[in-house]
């Protein structure tokens, strides 16, 4: 077997390539991988970042405490319920809007109009909805036209999380609509033409052609939506002043992590909560990937 001779030019080219990659790689290690590894390490400690020298080894205590922490359990329930409702609704609405926008005039205008909430500051959006959902806000004024007495949405434990769900759907539908539009454009027109010749109607085409061929796009949107909903923080932080109220009805896992880390100074416990949340998201993603893989067999 003839050996391939490595020339000086090939070595220089390889070295130049590694040098170009080195800044990005160093940044990845220093600002991403390094903090992740260190956070995992301190998740096994009683750690206060104001006095790191006083850290003591806790073993699995931080992780075991998660299952008896009432605030965390409430936050996990709220976040799970929020995800369970918001993800299907935003996925269905984004597909519905994509199907409409694809077939009407002025596509560019509607794309921008629907996508705008996704790029608007989440803090600004939250403040806007505080006024909309107020006792004398825009929503209740609208309901009063029909003789309906609306509740104080954000100060009522029964409706606060529902109001947050509305905000979440409104701010994400446009982003996922754009992704669905890209998926729709990748479906060959010949498929629809052949189905039309065979006598298939619009509903049949949607059920047997559009939805199955968009399975990969739907999987991407569901995973992105699930990750986004489990990371809900800024909206509930603004509308509840960081308290997750009223009576813990809007407390989420990430808001609880933030409070534990920067209000209670329990950084080790907050790190354990973060990795527990990571495991939950990873397991749910793997389950969805497994289901999708079986459907594609």
Explain this structure.
The protein has 297 residues and is mainly alpha-helical. The chain folds into two domains: 1-32; 61-295, MetI-like fold. The chain has 13 helices and two strands, in the order αββαααααααααααα. The chain has a two-stranded antiparallel sheet. Helix 4 (107-119) crosses helix 7 and helix 7 packs antiparallel against helix 10. The chain is flat, with a radius of gyration of 25 Å. 25% of the residues are buried.
* Coarse structural class: mainly alpha
Number of strands: 2
Number of domains: 2
CATH fold annotation of the largest domain: MetI-like fold
The CATH superfamily of the largest domain bears the name: MetI-like
Most strands sheet: 2 strands, antiparallel
Low-confidence stretches: none
Query: Which sequence of strands runs across the widest sheet?
Result: 1-2
Tell me the name of the CATH class of the largest domain. Mainly Alpha
Helix content: over 70%
Judging by the overall fold, what is the CATH architecture of the largest domain? Orthogonal Bundle
Shape: flat
Number of helices: 13
Order of helices and strands: HEEHHHHHHHHHHHH
Radius of gyration, in angstroms, nearest whole number: 25 Å
Mean model confidence by pLDDT: 87
